[in-house]
Design goal:
This protein is an alpha/beta fold. The chain folds into three domains: 11-100 and 175-373, Glycosidases (TIM Barrel); 109-160, Oligo-1,6-glucosidase, Domain 2 (Oligo-1,6-glucosidase, domain 2), CATH 3.90.400; 481-553, Golgi alpha-mannosidase II (Immunoglobulin-like), CATH 2.60.40. The chain is built from 17 helices and 20 strands. The protein is globular and about 75 Å long. Bound molecules: 1-O-alpha-D-glucopyranosyl-D-fructose and calcium ion. Calcium ion (CA) binds next to loops.
C-alpha cells in the first residue's frame, strides 16, 4: 500500500468566527487562532482546516465569497494570516483552507459584472436561463428553502443558486471559470498553504439541459454531474499535482463508488472525501421537513454504513473520518449521551470508535472537550440562515409544524449547535470574548471548557491526546484492515483491525446499560489494553458507554 503524510494526519477543524476573539468585537479572528496553536499542537493534531476566511457579506458565514484573495475584515488582515501560517509551520502544523467554488457571493465582482448585461464578458461565469412559461427554468429547490432560481429584473433572466439567492452558482462548463479558480488556488498554494477542503465540490457539474427533478433533493440530482471528474482531473493536472498538498472534497450524496472515483489512489483527483451517509440516518421521519426531526440514529444502521465505507474503500481509496463539523450537531449530543453522568464517558467512546477505524480523523473544535448542542430555547437565539429559513418555511409559511415542535428540531439539528463559541475557561463568555459574542455561548461553559479539561487527567482532551499518541506509535491504527464483528448487535459496536502479526480489538458499548459480551480476541492473555475507560477491567463486562481497545500480537 502507498503511504502518504495525509493518511497519517489528524485534522483539527477551526471555525474561525467562534474560536477566539482578540480585538473585543465579539467575533473570532485569525490572531485568536495563532494564540492557541500550542493547544492544537498539544492535542496531537497535525493539520488545521480553516473554514472560509475570505471577504464575505456573511450571509452564510463566509461560504458566500466576495473576494477570494482578501481576508474578511472581521477576521483580520493578510498580514495576520501570513503570521498564522508561519507560526503554524514553525510548530510543525499544516494548514488547509476552505475552497468554496461551486458558487460565489452575489457581491463578487464577477457576478456584479455578469448580472449587469446579457452580453457582458462575465455573463457566462454563472448559470442564466430564460423563464419557462413565465416561471423558473426547472423545479430545483435551494438547500436553504424555496426555488433554486432567482429572477433578475435587470436582464429578465433567472440565475441558479443551489444555496441562498446571494450565493449564485458558478458555471464550471465555462473554461474561463475553471482557469480563474485555478489561478486563485495557485495564489494560496504559492503562499505555502498545505491544501484545501472543497465545499460541495461534487455539485460543480450540472446535468445537461438542467432537467426537473422527480421528488425532492435537487442537490442529489446536481451531484456527481457529467463532467465533475473531468474538471477535478483538470484541476489536479493544472494545479494540485504541482504541490505536495492534501485535498478533501465535501460530497453530499456520494456513494462509496463515487468516492473511489474521486479519491482512488490512481484517480488523480482528490485525496479523500467527506461522505454524508452516516449524517442522514436520523431525520427521515418527516420527508416534507427534510432533516428536521427528533429521530435518533440506530446503532445497527450506523455500524453498517461506516463499515461499508471501511470495506468498500480498503486498498482503493482513503476515508475521512468525522462525527461532526460546523454544519452538524455536536457528536456527543447526537450519537452519545450528553447528560452530565454520561457526557465524558460517551464522548470518549465515540472518539475511540471513530479514531481506531481506517482513515484520517477530523476533530471539530470543542469535540475534544465533549462540548454539547447549545439547545437554545427561543428562535431569536439562532443566527444560521438554514435554521431561520426552515422555521419561516415550515412554521410560518406552510404551517407544517407548530413553533415549539420546530424549536425541538432546531435544538437537535440546527447548525448553530456546533457554532457557539469555543469554551476556553469559566470566565465571562467562556474566555472567547470580552464583548457580546456574535452567537450566544453555550450555557454549560462554566463546567465544560479547556481550562477544566487541562486540569483533569480523565478529560476528553487527554483521551484524544492519548489516541493521537497511539496513532503515531502503532502503524496498525493507520494501515490495518477493518472487519466488523456481530453486525446485528444493537448495543455494542465491535470491530477488529489487522496488520501483519498484530490485531486490534475495538469494543464500544453505545448504551447506558451494562452488558456482557464475549470475543475470541479478548480472551487472549497476551493482549495489551491500549484504551480502557474503567479501572478494574473485566473482559466480558461492558459498562455504560465503555470502550476498550486491545492490541494482540501473535508471535511470528
Ligand atoms: O455544506 C454543504 C451542505 O450539504 C449543507 O447543505 C449541509 O450539509 C447542510 O447545511 C446540513 O444540514 C457546505 C458548507 O459546509 C455549508 O456550511 C454551506 O452552508 C454550504 O456548503 C454552502 O456553501
Ligand atoms: Ca475579533
Amino acid at each position: 500500500m502507498e503511504k502518504h503524510w495525509w493518511q497519517e494526519a489528524v485534522v483539527y477543524q477551526v471555525y474561525p468566527r467562534s474560536f477566539q476573539d482578540t480585538n473585543s468585537d465579539g467575533i473570532g479572528d485569525l490572531n485568536g487562532i495563532t494564540q492557541h496553536l500550542d493547544y492544537i499542537k498539544a492535542l496531537g493534531a497535525t493539520v488545521i482546516w480553516l473554514n472560509p476566511i475570505y471577504q464575505s457579506p456573511n450571509v452564510d458565514n463566509g461560504y458566500d465569497i466576495a473576494d477570494y484573495r482578501k481576508i474578511m475584515p472581521e477576521f483580520g488582515r493578510m498580514s495576520d494570516f501570513n503570521r498564522l501560517l508561519k507560526a503554524a509551520h514553525q510548530k510543525g502544523l499544516k494548514i488547509i483552507m476552505d475552497l468554496v467554488v461551486n458558487h460565489t457571493s452575489d457581491e463578487h465582482p464577477w457576478f456584479v459584472e455578469s448580472r449587469s448585461d446579457r452580453l457582458n464578458d462575465y455573463r457566462d461565469y454563472y448559470i442564466w436561463r430564460d423563464p419557462k412559461n413565465e416561471e423558473a427554468p426547472n423545479n430545483w429547490q435551494s438547500a436553504f428553502g424555496g426555488s433554486a432560481w432567482q429572477l433578475d429584473d435587470q436582464t429578465g433572466q433567472y440565475y441558479l443558486h443551489l444555496f441562498s439567492k446571494k450565493q449564485p452558482d458558478l458555471n464550471w462548463d465555462n473554461k474561463q471559470v475553471r482557469q480563474s479558480v485555478f489561478e486563485m488556488m495557485r495564489f494560496w498554494l504559492d503562499k505555502g498553504v498545505d491544501g484545501f477542503r472543497m465545499d460541495v465540490i461534487n455539485l460543480i457539474s450540472k446535468p445537461a439541459g438542467l432537467p426537473d427533478v422527480k421528488g425532492k433533493g435537487q442537490q442529489n440530482l446536481a451531484a456527481n454531474g457529467p463532467h465533475v471528474h473531468d474538471y477535478l482531473k483538470e484541476m489536479n493536472q493544472d494545479v494540485l499535482s504541482h504541490y505536495d498538498v492534501m485535498t478533501v472534497g465535501e460530497t453530499p450524496g456520494a456513494t462509496t463508488r463515487d468516492a473511489i472515483r474521486y479519491t482512488g489512489f490512481d484517480s488523480h483527483e482528490l485525496e479523500m472525501v467527506f461522505q454524508f451517509e452516516h449524517m442522514s440516518l436520523d431525520g427521515n421521519e418527516n420527508p416534507e421537513l427534510g432533516k428536521w426531526s427528533t429521530e435518533r440514529v440506530k446503532l445497527t444502521e450506523l455500524k453498517q454504513v461506516m463499515s461499508k465505507w471501511q470495506t468498500d474503500l480498503a486498498g482503493k481509496a482513503w476515508n475521512a473520518l468525522y462525527w461532526n463539523n460546523h454544519d452538524q450537531p455536536r457528536a456527543v449530543s447526537r450519537f452519545g449521551n450528553d447528560q452530565a453522568k454520561y457526557r465524558v464517558i460517551s464522548a470518549k467512546m465515540l472518539g475511540a470508535t471513530l479514531h481506531f477505524m481506517q482513515g484520517t480523523p477530523y476533530i471539530y473544535q470543542g469535540e475534544e472537550l465533549g462540548m454539547t448542542n447549545a439547545k437554545f430555547r427561543t428562535l431569536d437565539q439562532y443566527q444560521d440562515i438554514e435554521s431561520r429559513n426552515a422555521y419561516r418555511e415550515f412554521v410560518e409559511e406552510k404551517q407544517l409544524v407548530d413553533p415549539q415542535e420546530m424549536l425541538t428540531y432546531l435544538r437537535q439539528h440546527s447548525r448553530d449547535n456546533a457554532r457557539t463559541p469555543m469554551q476556553w475557561d469559566d470566565s465571562d463568555n467562556a474566555g472567547f470574548t470580552t464583548a457580546t459574542p456574535w452567537l450566544a455561548v453555550n450555557a454549560n461553559y462554566a463546567k465544560i471548557n479547556a481550562k477544566q479539561a487541562m486540569a483533569d487527567k480523565d478529560s476528553v482532551f487527554y483521551f484524544y491526546q492519548k489516541m493521537n499518541q497511539l496513532r503515531r506509535h502503532y502503524e496498525i491504527i493507520v494501515y490495518g484492515d477493518y472487519q466488523l464483528l456481530d453486525p446485528d448487535d444493537d448495543q455494542v459496536w465491535a470491530y477488529t483491525r489487522h496488520l501483519g502479526n498484530q490485531d486490534l480489538l475495538v469494543i464500544s458499548n453505545f448504551t447506558e446499560r451494562t452488558v456482557q459480551r464475549w470475543y475470541e480476541l479478548s480472551q487472549r492473555t497476551d493482549k495489551i489494553e491500549l484504551i480502557g475507560n474503567y479501572p478494574d477491567d473485566q473482559e466480558e463486562t461492558l459498562r455504560p458507554y465503555e470502550t476498550k481497545v486491545y492490541l494482540i500480537e501473535t508471535p511470528k
